[in-house]
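Changelog excerpt

This revision adds worked examples to the README so contributors can see how folded entries look when concatenated. The first example is reproduced verbatim below.
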Amino acid sequence: MAGLSAAKALRRAQVDVLLVDRTNHHLFQPLLYQVATAVLTASQIAAPLRGILRRQRNVTTLLGEVSSVDVDRKVVVVSDADRQLVPVEYDYLVLATGVTHSYFGQNDFERFAPGLKSLGDAINVRNKILQAFEQAEAEEDPRAHGDLLTFILVGAGPTGVEMAGAISVLIRRSLRQEFRRIDPRAARVVLLDASDRVLPTFTPDISQAAKRRLESLGVEVRLGHPAEKIDHEGVTVGGERIASKCVIWTAGVAPSPAGKWLGAPVDRAGRVRVLPDLTVPNHPEIFVVGDTASLDQDGKPLPGVAQVALQQGRYAGRLVRARVSGQAMPPPFRYFDKGSMAVVGQGYAVVQSGRLHIKGLLAFFMWAFIHVTYLAQARLRLSVFAEWAWTYLTRQRGSLLIVNRPALPVEAQAPIETPRQVNSGAAEKSGTPARGVATSVAAGK
């Protein structure tokens, strides 16, 4: 989100922008869980980058992966579609390389507990959920149904809470009349977290309301203990073994290696420490934004959420434009917090904005309106709104498909959604357009 936001902010600047991304599309990650739970299709939350930017004549889009940055030569090394390494020069560089999954040193968990950062991840999770019901329907031994129909989510942040609620609604409302040999409502949904409450970044009253709502949907909420072991047979937590064939990782992220590329200082999580104008120390031509950046405001680090990424991307673009045109520099970046929200099952959400705390149906409508508004294209907004209305009224879901992932079309395969990075520069003295670069390499906001 941050890289695309920066590119759009440069639409009237006298610069040439090169947008580099590992995928050919922009992904609205906050709705990934709805693809994973069969509410929406992949094409409803993603749009081709070239289509989004088709009217912005100063942007060139390149399908490729950034492998390194030479800060002395001002060169980004890109692996293109043919796996050829291509050096790309820049005057200004905006890195928005985002984050990927973090298993807190237990990388062997990844084989058994996929995360949710890309379209490919969402389709993989959807496959696992739907295949579990198909296998249970075919399994004649009722004793095997418990393992197959136990769904465990590790991590009770917004993604885990939203996924747990959505899976519960899926199995208790949408699927309950579609099987003959099993009752989907007998399935278990278990939400685990080492924290002592769900949504730990929210206030205690919001957190407690979300927990009560999850439990009313039949979700088993287990807090205070981390996952000790995850394998193909289930999860061990707090010394207890929970058998499951479907474990989903919804906890923890790790930043891209941008700090190593730049030789820049990083925080404990590996994010690049940036100055108040989002530039790297000693390199005013390099901006780092979104989940890749670490910046404190009012004594606290900014959260890794979509709004931070969008605002930082726009700021970086405006600052480059000001430098190129010789205009007055904008003041240091300051994040305007519009609040936090999470949906907990159908028709219920929680919203926290300063002292304003809202729970229930009104919060759900606020959540829906804001998320539809931020979709990249009008056709997506209309499509998603119509799909939500249909699902709400009929309880039917339009994407209950088990897809053979290797056979997916190219546009649907996104092993890791990559943030975009923009670079634009100015040849101020000559008056010619400056070189620009936007790069993306890892999933992020």
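The second example, added in the same revision:
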Amino acid sequence: MLERYLSGVRKNIQPGDKGGNDMQLIIEKNYQEMSKKAAELVASQITFDPASVLGLATGSTPLGMYNELVKIFNKGEIDFSEVITFNLDEYYKISPDNKNSYHYYMMNNFFNKINIKGANINLLDGMTDKPQQECKNYDREIKRAGGIDLQILGIGPNGHIGFNEPGDKLCVETHLVDLTEETIKANSRFFANCKKVPKRAITVGMATILKAEKILLLASGKKKARAVKKAVNGYVDTKIPASFLQTHPHLTMVIDEEAALLLD
């Protein structure tokens, strides 16, 4: 299914091929500089289109970017009042007031510190008893908003983006996914231990990500270097979901020197 989608995006690229887009790769000295550059790019998007639809990521990597965006907002240099956001994923099941939920993360690290309208914030319901319906509704709302103008992504050590995990096939639409042991282990630093990490999550699918007008991927640290190398220099492969970003015509990667260590 993803292969059919890709044939409509870039007819000359199929899974197993080498990517050939003109990605913009920006390597900054450290995490702080990477975060500043990413914030500048997001701010430029909003300045260009005040009603931008943003796809937002969570985790430790984009946290510095959100902090920098708040600083820019506090200086009066950016206005979020017309911006619409869709978060990329959420643990399942986890309540929005749980400190490890992405709902809590976004509200406390970003949304509560800027002037975005509550009605313009779209977050996945990690407590829904009807996950399939939640996924369909979320995709419908993204389409109703006109699609994502700028999708912000992190990358997992195993090459996942959002919670689109490596596998023999990748899901096109928003879906409920079983997390890999590697992802659970990587995310256990946010919880008391691995046993406390939810084993499932809801994530926006690969087609929705690849349909975004622009994509901004962030990566920091040596632990991400191998995934970055495979995403940039490797073959397009479902076992490295981030490698599909090679097919996107407007991809910008902002990474620090440690994450760039293994690049050709």
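Reviewer comment on example two: The domain at 2-6+25-256 is CATH 3.40.50.1360 (Rossmann fold). The two ends are 31 Å apart (CA to CA).
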